[in-house]
Amino acid sequence: QVQLVESGGGLVQPGGSLRLSCAASGVRFSVNAMGWYRQAPGKQRELVAHITSSGATTYAESVKGRFTISRENAKTTVYLHMNNLKSEDTAVYYCTLAGSWGQGTQVTVSS
Fold it and tell me: Of 21, 26, 36, 64, which residue is 20 to 30 A from 3 by alpha carbon distance?
């Protein structure tokens, strides 16, 4: 059974940075692609970043140049490094792998 646990969310001022982590278990981590999604109040869940098993990455246009997704197979963990955060980045962030989802972690960008 796949289990995903996100962490690292919190309250940050505009222009600040956060690093989200998603620890996976119960799955062959290294052969799977992973993604970060987010859902803001009243909006649909949207893809933020994606990383393949070989490390190829894609990003939503709204976060390009500010966010970086990476993975550490030895720790079965994927990260989302978020810089220059904006108020519109406020959302619950979820990681996904092999059709499973984590519980989400809240990111709030506010002064």
Answer: 64
